[in-house]
Design goal:
43% helix; 274 residues; alpha/beta; 5-stranded parallel beta sheet; two-stranded antiparallel sheet; 11 helices; binds thiamine diphosphate
Length: 274
Amino acid sequence: MITPLKKFATDIRIQEMVQFKARGFGHIGGSLSISDCLAALYGGIMNIDPSNPCWEDRDRLVISKGHAGPALYATLALKGYFPLEELRTLNQNGTRLPSHCDRNLTVGVDMTTGSLGQGASTACGMALGLKHSNSKARVYLIIGDGETQEGQVWEMALFAAQKKLGNFIAFLDYNKRQLDGYVAEICDLDDPAAKFDAFNWYTVTIKGDDPDLIYETIEKVQKEQGDRPAMIVLDTVKGSGVPQIVDITLNHHNTITPELADEIIGQLEELKKG
Ligand SMILES: Cc1ncc(C[n+]2csc(CCOP(=O)(O)OP(=O)(O)O)c2C)c(N)n1
């Protein structure tokens, strides 16, 4: 039997493919690889109210690898922030769903991102602001592994530990590939958890393709992180959940035919039957 969170993650992937089919291209690999994390966050971890997206005490999510907007849009639409039909407007003229996340355009998006590294800093600033306001809200952040080559990420890492941001949980989508090749060959991260540990973060590395495991891990981290920011390194695959996309070595930004999109959607629908 497929668990409710795995079903949610599969639905997120299906709605990503609906968007890519409609536009004919997009950031497919890096959207798929965060689908399980989004399923865990929006499947019960985050304290949110889709009918009140600007609720002051809501938990926030910043997807700093902003090119993975389609993964967030799929999730938000499934949660009822806006109609599913709107997903077919991805990256078209006049859309509210641009290629990269934009908080001024899309209901439910907490931060505008796309310039790699910046979302890490803005998320950290949000967490600091909420801490100063004595809010119980938490801030979640997703960064890419290629993105983590940005110096700005490490400035944030220093600052968040110094400010004792125990309301801050980051995820590193360690899918080993960046725009134009393998992270290990371009500028290796080696063991990123060890590095964040050295920056005084609570760190853990887990398999990133199991939303139930991600869910349990977040609950454990929340109990144990104390006043440290936390880094959950997700061991993922770029294109996760869709073998046809995983098999494309450079699967950062690709065209997709309607036929392939339909084939993938069919496969994912089968998966949901358990
Ligand atoms: C500051 C900055 N430099 C370059 C880019 C262009 N760019 C967009 S995505 C990307 C690769 C990101 O790789 P990674 O963080 O591993 O993302 P993922 O593979 O998870 O999609 C690059 C270089 C950018 N958006 N921002």
